[in-house]
From TrEMBL:
One of its GO terms (cellular component) is cytosol. Belongs to the TRAFAC class TrmE-Era-EngA-EngB-Septin-like GTPase superfamily. Era GTPase family. One of its GO terms (biological process) is ribosomal small subunit assembly. The gene is era. It is found in: Cytoplasm; Cell membrane. Residues 1-166 form the Era-type G domain. Residues 118-121 are annotated as: G4. This is GTPase Era. It comes from Lacicoccus alkaliphilus DSM 16010.
Length: 166
């Protein structure tokens, strides 16, 4: 099994930390250069069963008013063309404008969306449950997976979830 995974989320939610945790020494490609005009390969993770190609989606992190029609289309096309979308948020913070903007972008996307609640090491379990309730109402996520990218909690579970969508 092989497939592309879009990683999206506002700055500082832990996207890079997650990538580093998953890829570890298995990094095949780590490049800041755009591979094409529409996306940027962050890394490739290969196991016996599967190959996961993680890509960054330029444009999706920008506030809506700064995005032209064309950029919006490019971002949407990229999201459509990947097998899974990983939407990473910081569970230790209230949902913010940046998150809401991304959620708006994700509406009407047929690609499975996995909501990753990162930084669970910073929240009380009761607050984690509250956050799950908040996000659940915002969009019809395929899965909601709480992790700590920094400490590595549940990261292997998230990899399994991704694998199941390839
Ligand atoms: P990015 O901008 O989304 O790529 O975010 P980074 O991966 O650069 O992380 C931003 C900050 O959050 C860094 O200081 C990380 O160490 C921290 N961070 C990332 N994941 C976690 C986590 O699971 N728990 C905690 N406590 N901090 C985290
Ligand atoms: Mg980063």
């Amino acid at each position: 099994k092989s497939g592309f995974i879009s990683i999206i989320g506002r700055p500082n939610v832990g996207k890079s930390t997650f990538m580093n945790k998953v890829l570890g020494q298995k990094v095949a490609i780590m490049s800041d250069k755009p591979q094409t005009t529409r996306n940027k390969i962050q890394g490739v993770y290969t196991t016996e069963q599967s190959q996961m190609i993680f890509i960054d989606t330029p444009g999706i992190h920008k506030p809506k008013h700064q995005l032209g029609e064309h950029m919006m289309k490019v971002a949407r096309n990229t999201l459509r063309e990947t097998e899974v979308i990983l939407f990473i948020v910081n569970v230790a913070e209230e949902i913010g404008r940046g998150d809401e903007f991304i959620i708006e972008m994700l509406e009407h996307t047929s690609t499975p969306i996995v909501l990753v609640l990162n930084k669970i090491d910073l929240v009380h379990p009761d607050d984690l449950i509250k956050q799950i309730e908040v996000y659940k109402d915002k969009l019809n996520f395929s899965e909601i997976v709480p992790i700590s990218a920094l400490q590595g909690n549940n990261v292997d579970k998230l990899v399994e979830v991704i694998e199941s969508y390839l």
